[in-house]
Amino acid sequence: MRTQVGIIGAGPAGLLLSRLLQLQGIDTVVLENRSRDYVEARIRAGILEEHTVQTLVDAGVGERLQREGLPHDGVYLQYPGVRHHLDFPSLCGRRVWAYGQTEVTKDLISAQLHDGPPLLFGVSDVVPEDVDGDSPRIRFTDADGVPQVLECDAIAGTDGFHGVSRPVVTAGTGGRLWERTYPYAWLGVLADVAPSTDELVYAWHPDGFALLSMRSPSVSRLYLQVDPGERIEDWSDDRIWTALATRSALDGWELETGPVTEKSVLPMRSFVSAPMRRGRLFLAGDAAHIVPPTGAKGLNLAVADVTLLATALTRLLAGGRTDLVDTYSDRALARVWRCTHFSWWMTSMLHRAGDDFDAELQLSQLRRVCGSEAAARELAENYTGLPVG
Ligand code: FAS
Ligand code: PHB
């Protein structure tokens, strides 16, 4: 098999990269080790930045997003007795959309299978080789158990945190890793109940953080701060709803409850791996970095990476110029660290940890953001997504 860009991983990063390159006339093959059903069933991010929405629409995969996505002009920050709305358009001229990553992935897969380049599910034994030369290859076993070799001009490692690509980059570059594990996790819940607020609520509470999000006018997505070792079996639906209602309580308002359809405990970590390139192997998305989901950056940062990478690979493979691929890692990492800082800052401000002194610092920060246009603008600009590139 031969293609111009071999893409390892069919998450949002790999699928969108394939789409963006296809629009530039660059051939790709996407290799995914899970099944289509598995990939499309994963419940992950829920907020899209404005540039993510525009990129999907411009790439011709945003039609359902425009029809079903929920445009949000802001979020609420809450602490006991106060629920304060940050109005993004007035603060920074941008907004966000509530549209599940699951739906983004389905839209991308549907487009690719309809008229896109090859997308192979159920592969195994994926190994990138000869990445330091101009003719790298990917060895893998296809879904029928047949060993294959995909000859490429370049490889994109979009295979997430547990993928095979990052170790190849760090082994060949003496790469650096930065990691921060947080002393808490999120218990995430999907429920068949209409959201109780029009936009997201990020709530600080002495018992712990709570986030009220949504997937549609009839499906709520909710999160609770829990201990990292928490077992989901110890959290009955009643216990979850009681904790959510306590942490988001506000006079004259009530949290609507309903049937829980999914619940799981998600770890919280920050992780950055540099560089994001080794020869003709380029990392993008969670393969290179992980952010705690508090800032709604994970999916959007993956989109920013592949926006830069698609332009760089097109310049290399269609124009024979290496300037953008040579600077890709540094340009992508500049935004990675900005988003890593913002995600750490939002997480540290809102999650209970430490002692009462820490709690007073958090409440002071929250009052500052809710009371200062300058402080609110800094949150709004980062949350809605800084310009890419
Ligand atoms: P992904 O991990 O999505 O995709 C990588 C793909 O590569 C997967 O399909 C995987 O099966 C495949 N793969 C792995 N190894 C392979 C191999 N050897 N060969 C072939 N394929 C391989 N972000 C938010 O903003 N908000 C959230 O609430 C949120 N919740 C999350 C919950 C969980 C449990 C996780 C894990 C992440 C969450 N994220 C959230 C972050 C998430 O949205 C990621 O940022 C996003 O999926 C990044 O997309 P990709 O880089 O494409 O990586
Ligand atoms: C979600 O809806 O899954 C979501 C929204 C905002 C976040 C994290 C997760 O910060």
UniProtKB/TrEMBL annotation:
Molecular-function GO term, any one: FAD binding
Domain annotation FAD-binding: ranges: 2-343
Top-rank lineage group of the source organism: Bacteria
Matches recorded under Pfam families: FAD_binding_3
UniProt keyword Magnesium, yes or no: no
Keyword rRNA-binding: no
Keywords on record: Monooxygenase, NAD, Oxidoreductase
Entry-linked PANTHER family: 3-(3-HYDROXY-PHENYL)PROPIONATE/3-HYDROXYCINNAMIC ACID HYDROXYLASE, BLR0106 PROTEIN
Protein name: 4-hydroxybenzoate 3-monooxygenase
